[in-house]
Each structure stands twice: as structure tokens, then as C-alpha cells.
Amino acid sequence: MACAIKVYLPQDSYEVAISSGYLDVLGEKTSTLGLGKKILLVSNPTVFGHYGERAINSLKSADFDVASCILPDGEQYKNLESLQKIYDAALENRIERSSTMVALGGGVIGDMTGFAAATWLRGIKFVQVPTTLLAMVDAAIGGKTGVNHPQGKNLIGAFHQPQLVLIDPQVLETLPDREFSAGMAEVIKYGIIWDRELFDRMEECDRLDRISAITPDLIEYILNHSCQSKADVVSKDEKEAGLRAILNYGHTIGHAVESLTGYSVVNHGEAVAIGMVAAGKIAVELGMWNPEEAQRQDRLIEKANLPTKLPAGIDIEGIIAALQTDKKVKAGKVRFILPTSIGKVEITDRVTSEVIRRILEQM
């Protein structure tokens, strides 16, 4: 059943459209947006091999003139060098101010395409077609775009909202189990920060580590609830002036772990899972959260086959130092998002380095 979720913003409201088979109506949906006829589709070899032809055929059937740019697959390629390749393709294919970029892929492709669109000719329009669970429920919605710096994740970027987010759950059938688990980390996050009902529903499921273990009804429920949670928060705080920071639950330590392991040992979802476990333990240590609920969170993370311990050999002092370069630092103080109950969190800057060190040593 089709679901349309609206992201309400002062200037750039748009729709998150969710339905099985929607990839084949990409052209039809895009043609209703009043865009120019030239499109640059950005993808990676794996996703393009599965879905590139279908996406291009759908766009061409709606009379769009489509060129493509294929980037290497992986978080380690989310950098300025890859961004340059998008600019080169845009120049070669004469992408104009009336043109549109379409991101067909996971969070890496979506973030880079969005940033390229935000900066090419001082800003052109773009459409998100996420193909991973993580991108569907998180990265594709909200207008955060960017690339990584060697010393920190997403330090170079811009807010640039898409014209449309088109989600086809059928594409998840080709997603590797590890990538599916990575997306479940962000779904669990929404249960902790915003949607207790979603958390409870996931607890009823025996396994969360592969799509074949989850019914189509539950997948639909997860997508609808997660996307609605993200839309609710973004609509209230587009550019992270306050409330939107809660979406970074688990990301404070998670980003440091990703950065220190060169974006190659753990993926984003695995890092967020580690960060959520750490944040839960910190919240319990500070008396903000009861241990039983923290254990329920950790059991759900394990059910998704996600890590609850730090990678072997990682430098704890390096994590603490890396936290100082995090985007959430304010006046030199690291801001943590910490749970007070399932479905509710608080933002605090009263977490000392000693507490962080103690918790990380336990992990």
C-alpha cells in the first residue's frame, strides 16, 4: 500500500513516497515536480547494476534526458575526490541550473549527490532514490548533504533539501544482510528517541538481522514509522537549531569510532549501534535512565546482529580527542543525546571525559 509522508518546511516542503514497485514510476513521479528535462543520475556500480537500467528507462519514458555518473562503492570514497567526479560529469553533460541530479544508492551516494547539487552552479535541484534501509529511514530525508574529512565525518557539507524522496521497499531484497542490519541501527534509534510504539513492535520480532526474517507488513510499518519520525523532527527544526540534534543519538561516539577506524572496519550503522550502547551506559551512570531499559535497547541491537563492543585495538584516548572535532561541540563542550525513557531523550553537555573513559573501558 502506498504511503505519502510530507516533510513540512518554510520553503522547501516535499514528499517521501513509499510503495513497492515505485522505482518503475520514478519518471512519472519526477515529471510532476516541474523540473527541467536534463538529469544526471549518480550511483555506484553495485546499485547501478541492479537498478540503473530500470531507473533510467522510467525517467526516459517521462521524456527526461538522462546522463549517469558511477562512483566507487563505500564510505571511504565519500570524499572531495569523488565529489570532483560528479562535477566533471555535470560539466561534460552540460548540467544547467534548470537540471536535476538523482541519487540512486545508499547514504554515501545520497549525501554526495545532494552536496554536489547544493554547490553546482550555486545550487540545483535533486531527487533521492535510496536503495538501502539506512538511507530510506535516515540519510535521504532531511537535507543533510556532505562528504567526510580525513579527521571527521561529514565535516564538509550543506543543508539542501530534495524535491522528492522515492522509496521502493522491493530494492531491499538485493541488500546484503550486513547492510540491512546497519539500517536497523537507525530504526532502533527512532524507537529510543521518539517512537516507543515502534520499539515495542520490534521487540516482538525474533530476528532483525535480515529482510527474509521480517514480514512485508513489518517492513512497511518500520519504513512508515521511521520516515514519519524523521519528517516530524525535521519539520520542527530544519537546520538543527535545537530539537533535530536528537537524531544524532548514538552518533557522537559512533562518528569517532568510524573516523578512527578509517571508515573501513565498521560501517555507519554498526558505529551508531556502538554509540547507542555507550550513550545508554552513560545515561545509566548519570542516573538519567534505568538499567532495565538500557538492557532492552542492547538486546534489540543484538537481535539486529549489531556490535555492542568497541572494535579491537581502538584507542580510547583517540575517541575522546576525536569528540572535540564533532559538529555537536558547543563552546568547547561535547553535547550528548541521552535517553531518559524509551521514546524520550535529552541533550546534555555535562558528560565528563572521565565518565566517557570509564564507559569506553567497560566496552
UniProtKB/TrEMBL annotation:
GO biological process terms on file: amino acid biosynthetic process; aromatic amino acid family biosynthetic process; chorismate biosynthetic process
Compartments in which it is found: Cytoplasm
Enzyme Commission designation: 4.2.3.4
Keyword hit for Cell division: no
UniProt catalytic activity: 7-phospho-2-dehydro-3-deoxy-D-arabino-heptonate = 3-dehydroquinate + phosphate
Protein's job: Catalyzes the conversion of 3-deoxy-D-arabino-heptulosonate 7-phosphate (DAHP) to dehydroquinate (DHQ).
Top-rank taxon, per record: Bacteria
Residue stretches making up the 3-dehydroquinate synthase N-terminal domain: 69-181
Keyword Amino-acid biosynthesis: yes
GO CC, one annotated term: cytoplasm
Domain 3-dehydroquinate synthase C-terminal positions: 183-329
Biochemical pathway: Metabolic intermediate biosynthesis; chorismate biosynthesis; chorismate from D-erythrose 4-phosphate and phosphoenolpyruvate: step 2/7
Organism listed in the record: Mastigocoleus testarum BC008
Name the UniProt record assigns to this protein: 3-dehydroquinate synthase
Entries under InterPro entries matching the protein: Dehydroquinate_synthase (IPR050071), DHQ_synth_AroB (IPR016037), DHQ_synth_fam (IPR030963), DHQS/DOIS_N (IPR030960), DHQS_C (IPR056179)
Keywords, ordered alphabetically: Amino-acid biosynthesis, Aromatic amino acid biosynthesis, Cobalt, Cytoplasm, Lyase, Metal-binding, NAD, Nucleotide-binding, Zinc
Coiled-coil intervals, chain numbering: none
GO molecular function: 3-dehydroquinate synthase activity; metal ion binding; nucleotide binding
Necessary cofactors: NAD(+); Co(2+); Zn(2+)
Binding site for NAD(+): 73-78, 107-111, 131-132, 144, 153
SUPFAM superfamilies: Dehydroquinate synthase-like (SSF56796)
